[in-house]
Write a structure and sequence with these properties.
The chain has 247 residues and is mainly beta. It has 3 helices and 18 strands. Helices cover 9% and strands 45% of the residues. It starts with a strand and ends with a strand. Bound molecules: adenosine-5'-diphosphate and magnesium ion.
Length: 247
């Protein structure tokens, strides 16, 4: 077991590469760290291995506090992997942690993190196609999002501003108008092999928004033509102040 308690590494000049991080990793657990370049992954690993001295906090490995021990006495090895790590879900791990600015923003199994990103940062980072994150407001008992009128979400109060999160895989395209759809024009059609990633330009109060839908290969829409993106509302995630609304 590796336990990190309030682990902080501040470099001279003031960069907090690891910021008061708490984490427990079980024996034999295959644990993956994900996050954009510069979020602190390498510094965290180097600190656990003893190649960097933490500014504060401690590191316990197998019940022994190793914070002050040199690398050779920690029974830890580090191997640098020289391939580009993409945020796709082909990282097969027991659990993953998503880091941002020296902190862990979510930790869980890959499917937990993929299906229920805890915040809009993780939602936009995880997945082969980025999640649609569309601003909206709860008004008159419905969610009003980019011109669409959608069922109210549990845990959201009248008048609140929200962000409506839906993966493109859960967005269908309709060729005729619907009230529960995002009306726009097809601007990009990207061939994914057995499906298409379609980008709609949708005019809204917040300016032009891009809405993406994955459609089957036999449903390629015409570029420039009108289309309505219909969300599978039961798959939507609603965020308020950047955090997932949990009813
Ligand atoms: N030796 C160093 N001196 C000063 N700043 C550093 C040093 N190493 C890393 N940093 C800074 O710490 C932050 C985290 O870097 P790093 O751990 O390499 O991130 P990642 O591996 O996630 O890309 C970055 O802002 C980086 O510029
Ligand atoms: Mg790195």
């Amino acid at each position: 077991m590796i336990s990190l308690h309030g682990l902080t590494k501040e470099f001279p000049g003031g960069v907090r590469a690891v910021d008061a991080l708490d984490l427990e990793i079980a024996d034999g657990e295959f644990f993956a760290l994900l996050g954009p370049s510069g979020c602190g992954k390498t510094t965290l690993l180097r600190t656990i291995a003893g190649l960097e001295t933490p500014t504060s906090g401690n590191i316990v490995i197998g019940g022994t506090d190793v914070t002050a021990l040199p690398p050779g006495r920690r029974d830890v090895a580090m191997v640098f992997q020289d391939y580009a790590l993409s945020p796709h879900m082909d990282v097969m791990a027991d659990r993953i942690a998503v880091m941002s600015a020296g902190r862990i923003t979510q930790v869980g199994t890959p499917s937990q993190v993929f299906q229920r990103p805890a915040n809009t940062f993780v939602a936009s980072f995880i997945g082969s196609t980025p999640m649609n994150l569309l601003p909206g407001v709860a008004k008159d008992g419905a969610l009003r999002v980019a011109g669409a009128v959608l069922p109210m979400a549990p845990g959201v109060a009248e008048g609140e501003e929200i962000v409506y999160g839906l993966r493109p895989e859960y967005m269908d395209l309709s060729a005729s108008p619907r009230q529960d759809a995002f009306a726009g024009h097809v601007s990009v059609v990207e061939n994914l092999g057995t499906s298409y990633l379609v980008t709609l330009e949708v005019a809204s109060d917040a300016g032009d928004l891009l809405v993406q839908a994955v459609v089957p290969e036999d449903a390629e829409p015409t570029r420039g033509g009108p289309a309505w993106a219909v969300p599978r509302h039961d798959r939507a995630l609603v965020y308020r102040d950047g955090e997932l609304v949990v009813p």
